[in-house]
Amino acid sequence: HYADTTLFFTHLSKTKGKKYGDWFDRIVVQKVESVSPWVEQSYSVGYNQDKMQDKPWMSSDHHSKYEGNVYVTWTEFDKYDSHDSSDRSRIQFSYYNAEIDSFSNEITISDTTGDCIDGDNTLEGATTAVGSNGEIIAVWAGFEKLFIDKSFDGGLTWGKDQVLAKQPEGWDMEMPNIFRANGMPFIASNPTKNHLVVCWADEYNGNADIWLKHSSDVGNTWSKRLRVNQDTTQSHQYFPNIVFHQATESYFIAYWDQRHSSKNLFNDIYLAQFKIGEGIKEFRLTKKSSPLPGPTFFYGDYIDIDANDSNIAVIYPTFSAITKKSSIELAHGKISDIASNYPSKSSATTIEEA
């Protein structure tokens, strides 16, 4: 989201005349300026001959001297799924400049490179947040670590990568009864107070949990890791995502959760609220558990979360054991209802499912 009348969204390409993998040769960004009538413009970002471009994520600046900029980060593969040690992966960056209505040429912001196997030693999952003075803070995963880097000039130049946290067993998580899962990091900011929160998943405790670190000085110093999921089981939690809600100064984190299935055959969506200085609250978002699709059925990655002045929404995939098909579901509700109705031991929720 860029302004009240403009929407940006990004996706991969399917370039004609190329085979799977090779056809992801650029990042595509769409800008919608009107829905009635529909007015849309498309931008090709990051094309680099036959190199593969993957996993784009976006953020935007609404408050600094760079207001109007939109930022895109993603992974570039020299050759996807290559076991050749000379083929490498890296984190790429481009920004949209509203004054010239164009995206910049892409630059590499990671100081190191990873392999191209699409596993823990591949650099992936780059997301960004924006500080009060327009600082861009990027985080990504690789080599069982979380990396962080910052730009202070609207993305023209970047600093030196720092290790934010160790990520035991890496971002590529082998979870039961699901085709693939990951614990890639997501970052959100409270730009009025220079606060940042990063969430991710790893197996620090021997099973997959959701973790966060927070900073009160735009990422110069960070807290110790805090466990987001509050269960006492050895079940798995993964696929986190985060949004900041200005009115309550809270960070809401949504994630997949298997705590209600002792044999890891079902999963739920949980939602946690974190406010710096006040700890973590969580509750079960889904009214009933959904069956996991098994290790051969692919029904999508990730969940997404957003919030405005009074509402919060989480979108996620589900699977039907009856139809053997997947679908996308949306859970939404008023933040005031959520904040006043946290169950202590009950799985009840005020969130509606659609």
Which stretches are low in confidence, meaning pLDDT under 50 for 5 or more residues running?
342-354
Number of helices: 1
What is the molecular shape? globular
- The SS-based structural class is mainly beta
Name the beta content range. over 45%
- Residues in helices, as a percent range: under 10%
* Average pLDDT, all residues: 91
Largest sheet: 5 strands, antiparallel
Number of strands: 27
**What's the gyration radius in Å?**
20 Å
- Terminal-residue CA separation: 23 Å
H/E series, N to C? Answer: EEEEEEEEEEEEEEEEEEEEEEEEEEHE
What report would you give on this structure?
The C terminus is likely disordered. Strands 4, 5, 6, 7 and 8 form a five-stranded antiparallel sheet that branches. This protein has 354 residues and is mostly beta strands. It is built from one helix and 27 strands. It is 2% helix and 46% strand. The protein starts with 6 loop residues before the first strand and ends with a strand.
Give the key terms.
2% helix; 46% strand; mainly beta; single chain; globular; disordered C terminus; five-stranded antiparallel beta sheet
Quick structural overview:
With 354 residues, the chain is an all-beta fold.
What is the topology?
Layout: E1 7-12, E2 27-35, E3 38-45, E4 52-60, E5 70-77, E6 89-97, E7 102-103, E8 107-108, E9 124-130, E10 136-142, E11 145-151, E12 162-166, E13 172-173, E14 181-182, E15 186-190, E16 195-202, E17 209-215, E18 226-227, E19 237-245, E20 250-257, E21 266-275, E22 279-284, E23 290-291, E24 304-307, E25 311-319, E26 326-334, H1 335-340, E27 352-353
Antiparallel strand pairs: 1-2, 2-3, 4-5, 5-6, 6-7, 6-8, 9-10, 10-11, 11-12, 13-14, 15-16, 16-17, 17-18, 19-20, 20-21, 21-22, 21-23, 24-25, 25-26, 26-27
